[in-house]
Amino acid sequence: MLYFARWKTVLILLTILVGILFSVPNFFTREQVASWPSWMPGRQLVLGLDLQGGAYLLYEVDRTSYQQKRLQSLEGDIRNALRQSEPRIGYTGLGIKNNSAVELRLRDTARVADARERLKDLVNPLDASMFAGAQINEFQFTISDDGLIRFSFTEDGLAQRIRSVVDQSIEVIRRRVDQLGTTEPSIQRQGEDRILVEAPGLSDPERLKAMVGQTAQMTFHLVDVNSSVQQAIQTRPPAGDLLVYSTDDPPVPYLIEATPLLTGDDLTDAQAGFDQRSNQPIVNFRFNTSGARKFARVTQANVGRPFAIVLDNEVITAPRINEPILGGAGQISGNFSVESANDLAILLRAGALPARLTIIEERTVGPGLGADSIEAGKIASVIGISAVAVFMIACYGLFGILSCVALFANMALIFGALSFLGATLTLPGIAGIVLTVGMAVDANVLIYERIREEVRAGRSAISALDAGFSRALGTILDANITTLIAAVILFYLGSGPIRGFAVTLAIGIITTVFSAFTFTRFLVAMWLRNRRPSRLPI
Question: What is the DSSP letter of 518?
């Protein structure tokens, strides 16, 4: 029936009103919206990278450096396994070969069985849920009768490790980029070992590159004051020491103990601040409980010795320990600006990347290109809506006008929904909206053609209208549900612009069913109640 209960009328009108209210802020500037009353919706559409400009960075995991790091860790594990338990097992030639394996040779070939037992757990079983429960080891090892032991990566183990590195890196990058204040950054996997970072509206792409690409491995080392730095430069560092340089200009060499006393994993917080005495920017940090205990023991046992804070193999600062530090907090001072101190604090809070990332593609999209895209989208939308309106009015007269009113209500609902959900509008998203304009009147065409058939069959005006709306509903739902399924699949399987298109298409389908059927039926019912025609102008 075309009759609408009062509560249905109120609900329909309220839905349209809410859609209009949430879409209105998009037609004003941010400054104007900020001055509105607090009860007015103030959320605006988030524009994507292709519309408002920004940075586009494609990173790749540095497999070579990651494999080197993992093999160095394995080398230490092998050394501990053979030497820590009694009786110790002697060996020679422990080292990394071709960045793909670790080899050593037992001194006593009679200890082969004992060595195999101690080393068998170092193959490092991995979580293999994505491999249908099959057992996957990161490493495989062989022991020959002459005592040669060789550890190497397994193909599946290395692939699983790289996938895990990418997943961890995405989370770390997300924490870093979120604290830069960018709007709706997009950080997602590309292939097996690549990460795509899009930051719409970011005015300083170089800062983004510095924040994302820095590994931020922070370690704390004691400085070796008993060995000569110059001799280490001319020859090589003593066993157990590393030669590193500071971030000063020119760099200052330091000889530090290779084994870190603490790492960035022991930190719980880092904040930029100012030194009360010099009023220079610093970074205040705080350790967790175990880190605070280790820091207290180190400072108690090494009063008077320099203590180097190293970030990615560069010494940031190397203060002297004047007294034990028991509170679990400290500060990093250096030649910081306010921005660099804040960036370092962000890096420390977000955590270190599990592997080094290298940029393989970089693009900076200017806001001018985005403005041109928006203008082109506006023109396309105006042309599309105008053409559809002319067609509907020419074909269906008064009912075509009602369809145009419903179409404008549909546009308000789409923009209101996008604003309310905080969805990102991209250039393909604009294409999705323009496509929705055409799809929106499809339902009206189906309804009106059905009404014409009923009129030709001799039905009265009310009976023809009621039959036209009710019998066309099934066809409308079938057509839109299949399209909605396609939009959902595009959203889950697509990325970037494809998702933007899928979001606007899905929202447009839902609002279209409401506006083209429910709201149009409401308008027709109001017209029918007021005019009570004997014949339909269709």
Answer: I
- Rounded (5°) CA angle 18-24-29: 150
Q: Among residues 428, 340, 343, which one has the least CA distance to residue 50?
A: 428
- Residue 139, token pair as written in the block: 């490493």
Residue 458 burial class via C-beta count within 10 angstroms: exposed 0-12, middle 13-18, buried 19 and up? exposed
Cis peptide before 306 (omega within 30 of 0): no
**pLDDT for 195-251, tens place per residue?**
988 887 776 777 788 778 778 788 888 888 888 888 888 888 887 788 989 888 788
- Give the span between the Cα atoms of 88 and 79, in whole angstroms: 10
Contact 23, 412 (CB under 8 A): yes
**Dist. CA 494–CA 110, nearest whole Å:** 58
* Residues linked to residue 285 through DSSP beta bridges, in sequence order: 270, 330
- The answer to whether 447 and 536 have CB atoms below 8 angstroms apart is no
Distances (CA, A) of 164 to 161, 177, 265: 5, 20, 18
Cα radius of gyration (the chain): 34
Per residue in 329-383, pLDDT (tens digit) is 888 777 778 888 888 888 888 778 888 888 888 887 766 556 676 777 778 778 8
User: What burial class does residue 500 get, using C-beta atoms within 10 Å of its C-beta: 0-12 exposed, 13-18 middle, 19+ buried?
Assistant: buried
CB-based contact 301:324 (threshold 8 Å): no
Q: Tell me which residue has tokens 């997009």.
A: 186
In whole angstroms, give the CA distance from residue 403 to residue 420. 25
DSSP at 183 = S
Exposed / middle / buried, residue 452 (Cβ in 10 Å: 0-12, 13-18, 19+): middle
Residues in the chain: 538
d(CA 112, CA 358): 42
Those residues with Cβ within 8 angstroms of residue 48's Cβ, 6 or more apart along the chain or in another chain: 184, 198, 200, 424, 425, 426, 427, 429, 497, 500
At 478, the amino acid letter reads: D
Show the tokens assigned to 458: 């001799």
Q: Most distant CA pair in the chain: distance in Å? A: 109
Helices (H), 143-280: 155-178, 205-213, 229-234
| H runs (alpha helix) in 263-337 | 289-301
Apex CA 423: angle with CA 417 and CA 426, to 5°? 115
CB 446 within 8 A of CB 476: yes
Sign of CA dihedral 237, 242, 248, 251: positive
Strand order across the beta sheet in which 281-287 lies: 267-274, 281-287, 329-333
Exposed (0-12), middle (13-18) or buried (19+): which is 491, by Cβ within 10 Å? middle
Rounded to 5 degrees, φ, ψ at 34 are -65, -25
